[in-house]
Amino acid sequence: MTAKLELRGVSKAFGPKKVLQGVDLVVPQGKSLVVIGGSGTGKSVTIKCVLGLMKPDSGSILVDGKETVGIGARERDQLMRKFGMLFQGGALFDSMRVWENVAFGLVQGRGVDRKEAYGIAVEKLKAVGLDEKVANLFPAELSGGMQKRVGLARAIAANPEIIFFDEPTTGLDPIMADVINELIIKTVRGLGATALSITHDMASARKIADYVAMLWQGKIIWYGPVGELDKSGNPYVDQFIHGRAEGPITMAA
What percent of the chain has pLDDT over 70? Predict the structure, then answer.
């Protein structure tokens, strides 16, 4: 099993608050890993450390076997070309048309001319089930589900090797959430990409994951194939995946 992305002993604290306390995680090449865990357990901080938006206090983050912690700006810029990202709220630019949102990284980051970028944007919009006429609309003219699709089209616009999905089904009704899950599976497999997702939505996790990891108090407390999730033997995992109030995880008052 070849690791596309690997975290070894990654720690991050903010003052006295220790958010990550030695995270070890392997995302195999071409597979989909979903990280589950409650709010404030460090899921988003983990992704920000991988993307270089935060620097871990200690530990190693390897992409294709190469260390990425502490690399220079130019190397980081090259590395980021391997990544695509679907943000939790869509994070679309209100003042830009849909196609400009999808092609933003191509035009701004890679110098692709607007005519070529438009063609790529339309192709990616069609890949997520949206017609070309949507391309010239503004985000405010779209439903939440359509905005999420546009965000997915943008995430895959440059054919990334690794795609991050940050709470991909938040705010969607169950049917639209399932549509987005299906699109995630289709687009990731179509690209042969490696996927890392963070979610609270267990229906989504079960659908899009090959592997699941649970983050609790800054550490990975369980990791395994999605098919073994229900027989993890871990009381924290069991409580979380079934949404039980009773168990070792207690909510702060």
Answer: 98
